[in-house]
Amino acid sequence: MKEKGILMNSIWFREKSNLSQSDIKKNILKAVTETEVLFNLIELFKIGDFFLNFEEQIGEEASADEKGDFYFRYCAENDTESYYFQQNLAFPGDFAKKLIQRVMIAANNEEPLRMALIPSLLSIFTGEKVPGDYYTIINESNYKDFIDYINGLSHIDWEKGQKYFYGYKV
Fold first, then answer.
1. What backbone torsions phi and psi does residue 168 show, to the nearest 5 degrees?
2. How far is the C-alpha of 164 from the C-alpha of 126, rounded, in Å?
3. pLDDT tens digits, residue range 17-27?
4. N or C terminus of the chain: which is more exposed, having fewer CB within 10 Å?
5. d(CA 37, CA 30)
């Protein structure tokens, strides 16, 4: 018999995580392999707060009915056939823009990239690893690697709202 209140309870997804969203994000930052990042991203999906950000609109302690109503309203107002990231149509170009903005700030101060999710998403979408990680110190000798990486991606015909896996539309 299926338990109530558990999202995606199956052999693949198991039970909803007891970790908080911030704990899961910390785990992503500590992840050493792409597999660890993916498993933690799945945990974010399961807590129901990753793409819809319902907490901002209906509160952290919203009931299942309130979350369901929010979800149905959201689906009615958006294209459910498209892929979204933070309530916008997902697009590698938008990810690349966020990455390059952070790279330029980090390069100015010779500080670590301190960005995990966007580089992971770009690597997963494109199949090409971002040339640095969360702890990479960005400076005048390596920021151009990021620019070259982004320039390489700009020659691909990406479509907004589509999900990609290693460069292939899925």
1. -105, 135
2. 7
3. 788 878 887 88
4. N
5. 9
DSSP SS3 for 89? strand
Of 70, 85, 100, the residue at which a domain comes to its end is 85
pLDDT digits (tens, 9 = 90+) for 37-88: 778 777 776 665 556 567 777 877 878 778 778 878 877 887 878 888 887 8
Same domain assignment for residues 25 and 76: yes
pTM of the model as a whole: 0.61
Residue 86 CB partners (closer than 8 Å, separation 6+): 51, 53
In a domain, 122, yes or no: yes
Cβ atoms of 27 and 40 within 8 Å: the answer is yes
Residue 50 shares a structural domain with residue 96 = no
Share of the chain above pLDDT 90, in %: 41
Q: How far apart are CA 108 and CA 138, in angstroms?
A: 8
